[in-house]
UniProtKB/TrEMBL annotation:
SUPFAM superfamilies: P-loop containing nucleoside triphosphate hydrolases. One of its GO terms (molecular function) is ATP binding. Residues 2-225 form the ABC transporter domain. This is ABC superfamily ATP binding cassette transporter, ABC protein.
Length: 225
């Protein structure tokens, strides 16, 4: 379970401070599929960066799996992120001069796993997202949808309990969007908590719960779909 309590976030703008997240409190339970929607500039990515443990400079409390994230040292915070959260981005963020298998295996390499274990796990997750036959290819030879499958494989290779995706279908056409959403739904059905920021209502509505952000605030009560 993740709990945000009275989160406030400010960015400096010259001499001014911009109040980007305004007293956000919300709880997301294990296994939920939540979408976060709102206009451009409303603070969605800023909120996601906090939830996904990329940003720890905020006021308020963030308790994840019973642990107050403020209590972690910088090094432990990074380790905690790598163990608990898998990230997927709009533009895939694959390393171009590495094969698909090497891209997906990188988080395991950082964890110091053996070559044998890395290969077994990478093959399993590539198979799970339907792209095992591309293991030895390089990213630029793959379509956008295939590259996003690779990015999802990389996000789940460490078996995180939360997968966070920032506009994961933003660079995909509508039929590929359906395919990628099916991959996400399959993941969620296996118990992974899924949190997606999207501008696309057809994507957001597939979640079990939609959280709407307006000007850095959660609009009213978020609701079940
Ligand atoms: N690193 C930063 N430094 C300064 N200001 C920032 C920074 N990141 C975001 N902002 C500002 O915070 C506000 C919210 O940005 P954020 O990216 O969270 O919005 P968003 O809802 O995700 O927008 P979009 O849908 O366009 O991605 C914006 O006014 C933005 O300019």
């Amino acid at each position: 379970m993740l709990e945000l309590r009275h989160i406030n976030k400010y960015f400096k703008r010259g001499d001014d401070e911009q109040h980007v997240l305004k007293d956000i409190s919300l709880t997301i339970n294990d296994g939920e599929f939540v979408s976060i929607m709102g206009h451009s500039g409303s603070g969605k990515s800023t909120l996601l960066n906090i939830i996904g443990l990329l940003d720890r400079e905020f006021s308020g409390d963030y308790v994840l799996n019973g642990l107050d994230t403020h209590e972690l040292s910088k090094k432990k915070f990074t380790k905690f992120r790598n163990e608990n959260v898998g990230w997927v981005f709009q533009n895939f963020k694959l390393i171009q001069n590495m094969t698909i298998a090497d891209n997906v295996g990188l988080p395991l390499r950082y964890q110091g796993k053996s070559n044998k274990e890395i290969k077994q796990t990478v093959d399993r997750v590539l198979d799970e997202v339907g792209i095992l036959d591309k293991a030895d290819a390089f990213p630029k030879l793959l379509s956008g949808g295939q590259q996003q499958r690779v990015a999802i494989a990389r996000a789940i290779v460490t078996s995180p309990n939360i997968v966070i995706a920032d506009e994961p279908t933003g660079a995909l056409d509508s039929s590929t969007t359906i395919e990628i959403m099916n991959v996400f739904k399959q993941l969620n059905a296996q118990g992974t908590t899924l949190i997606i920021v999207t501008h696309d209502a057809s994507v957001g509505e597939q979640a079990h719960r939609m959280i709407k952000i307006l000007d850095g605030q959660v609009m009213g009560a978020d609701y079940e779909i």
